[in-house]
Amino acid sequence: MENSEHCSSTLRLILGDQLNASHSWFREKNSHCIYLIAELKQETGYVRHHVQKVCAFFLAMQAFAAALEKAGHRVIYLTLDDTADCTSLPQLLDRVIAEQAIGSFEFQRPDEYRLLEQLRHYAADLDLPSREVDTEHFLLPFDELAKEFKADTAHRMEAFYRRMRKRHDILLENGEPVGGQWNFDKENRESLKPEALEQLPEPLLFANDASQVLERLERHQVKTFGSAQPQLIWPVSRSQALDLLSYFCEHLLPNFGRFQDAMTRQKQQRWSLYHSRLSFALNAKMLHPLQVIRQAIAAREANPQRINLAQLEGFVRQILGWREFVRGIYWANMPGYESRNALTADRKLPAYFWNGDTQMRCMQESLGQSLEYAYAHHIQRLMVIGNFCLIAGIDPDAVDNWYLGVYVDAIQWVELPNTRGMSQFADGGLLASKAYAGSGQYISRMSDYCKECHYRVSQKTGPRSCPFNSLYWDFMLRHRERFELNPRVAMLYRNWDRQSEESRAAILDQAKKYLSRLESL
Question: What GO molecular function terms would the record report (predicted)?
Fold first, then answer.
């Protein structure tokens, strides 16, 4: 690009999840290049968001704009006050292009289908040169997604994960997996016993001043939900994200794998257990996935006695395997994936999803934590909240909107396959080989939620029987024709058939009663 005084300016748009300081855009300073970062009603309103999620993105955007400016780049940062009269992103771009006498427009490819379509249509209609560039973040390039993932085709994460390990030479020795196996998941399913509870470290929390953002949200009547915190605990800068990564590698990684599926209500001040809570920083691109993986590997290499391979592999699999895998499922099946409903679920989302007011202790704890912190770990999301929605037959549209809104790390490319695919089986098995339905026994085994619950996890029938028990069997029987031939669940149906007709009828009758009063469970 020319640097003469007569050169017109280029406008480069940076979205709220494109805060990648290592992007090639920023290698050179150019006085004729203007970076636009903007708070916009369009992005606060496409779904109702948790207030901490909005605060986290806005504060991270502000911090990124300030860092770019400090590095010598020209930046326009617009708050909701500045963009209040713009109903859409194209309208804002038109305004800025006119005000700044822009000669060309560039944007990083959005990771959400709706934004990609919007910006591509806008660029195509623009009377200026425009250019779409890569975000330079993911470990599988965008133009290779179609080679790995086919539309309307079932894919499985494990095979993909192994290919990614080989591609990036992660945890390999002479082309074979370190430790002689690819996956140590079977070693990573421990519940938290009393002695382990006492050793839980407190999470590293930040104290970012969100008061001005909260004032703007109120002033512009942005509808949010969840607990607002004037001191936001989430990392909103690259330096904070790096601090959180270092804290994880030092204090949490040694026990991450062992307890990654565990849940507890005993240590409320240690609510995130051994989880990294790096997903927001990763999804906003303040951290690069390879950087995170390499730092975790380096931590184990520095202290192999303290961090065994199973802990490390479980973490690497989440990032190199699962995160990249769900992105592939998303792009292979969009548009249309967001409206799949293979199990024809249509019940309304109960009110306690918005206030946590339920007698089911596991749901009370998982929903309550989600509403308080905009966070729950993957088992709370999948096997408690998601499991309940699945076996109760909740409309996946409502489930999607709730998950997309409630979690600080939720962006549609990662939320939609996890929810509609993995959790709700609404894609009919494109992502998962079975429906992740479970009775109360799984929750009892992996948590202490059941010990002080109003309901009795040991009971399948009766007024205080665990709702998960009868709803589970009702779900499995409703969809028997679909699932019965799956070798992973065939044994369950044989067990059911061995029960007396009276016992089976009582369980299904109990489920019918609970389904008739979902709101009051």
Answer: lyase activity
